[in-house]
Specification:
Bound molecules: nicotinamide-adenine-dinucleotide, glycine
Mean pLDDT: 97
Radius of gyration: 20 Å
Structural class: alpha/beta
Number of strands: 13
Order of helices and strands: EEHEHEHEHEHEEEHHHHHHHEEEEH
Strand order of the largest sheet: 1-2-9-6-5-3-4
Distance between the termini: 46 Å
CATH class of the largest domain: Mainly Alpha
Helix content: 40-55%
Shape: globular
Strand content: 15-25%
Number of domains: 2
CATH topology of the largest domain: Dehydroquinate synthase-like, alpha domain
Largest sheet: 7 strands, mixed
Number of helices: 13
Amino acid sequence: MKKLLVELGNRSYPIYIGSDLLNQAELYTQHIKARQVIVVTNTTIAPLYLDKVLKNLCKFDVETVILPDGEQFKTLETVSRIFDKLLLGKFSRNATLIALGGGVIGDMGGFAAACYQRGIAFLQIPTTLLAQVDSSVGGKTGVNHPLGKNMIGAFYQPQCVIADADVLDTLDDRQLSAGLAEVIKYGLIRDIEFFEWLENNINALLARDKQALAYAIERSCLNKAEIVSEDETETGVRATLNLGHTFGHAIETGAGYGTYLHGEAIAIGTCQAADLSRRKGWLNDGDVERIISLFKKCNLPVNPPKQLDSDLFLELMAVDKKNVNGQIRLILLTKIGAATLPIDVDKTLLIQTLNTYGR
Ligand code: NAD
Ligand code: GLY
């Protein structure tokens, strides 16, 4: 087992990465300080892993909440079901919430933990590749709004993250590829060596080679932990993790939540960001081809949906947490392995990308 640390002073916490971690009771119990525990999961994950987790919690008073599965349920209404259970069960402030699932469950569980009685402890047990390499680390929690993705939320750090690579065995190929989109992001924004490693090892990852997957999870979490430790609340470098996300969130919202997987929308958005970086003169044609080719090898989409024209894109991109005074701000690449902080974009170039890239 590998143990990484997200260094945040007295709110620092470990990320455990390895095999068979779900069965290691002490990993969870050392982070649970009182009897009341609530496990939040969904209808897909519960039959696969809930019993395994509950088996380790026999000395606690445990309630479970099994939510419907899907990005379209990442809403305040769904989070209310967690609050109902906490209140009906008379959970107090020293209770612990365990989020067992992908990014949707982790984001909602974390948000419920942040809000209930102004904050109870929570543990992240991410079960998708995307959640293991990205969403479970760093304390961004929240829900979607019909007008904008992830627009309601809070920064709230977990007590620990338990990333058991064995649970990826039951993840389907499409979801695995979606997770790889966020893995590739780390290479693109700050880790050229990792990007090159990914180019050379993508087939092993797609074939679910355990060693390759463990390395990709660890290197991604290392990158994420470093960024979050430096800039927890995204006043600077953390924004680079949003490469491709302004385009991607517009695609998710515009196409209807759940139509594109988050990682798929990010793959397309990153290619659009790469195209715009080329128009700025920072990337050359070969760089953009390299990026598109790696996403394609992962069986990820690289072209935006036809029904999203540039006007609709601009309208949707106007609802983004990086924007200031109505000005769209984007993360672009200055080269493979280096990203800008959010910059005001030249609208003419942006419209060129929206009208021509992948059209
Ligand atoms: P998800 O949570 O919807 O999970 C994908 C699907 O896989 C779901 O159907 C789920 O039930 C299923 N599943 C989960 N684990 C499984 C397993 N081990 N075996 C079989 N099926 C399994 O999607 P996701 O890709 O994990 O997360 C996407 C969400 O994460 C988005 O809402 C996105 O906005 C959010 N996100 C948050 C952050 C953050 O920093 N908080 C970062 C990136 C993404
Ligand atoms: N996934 C973006 C972030 O954690 O900041």
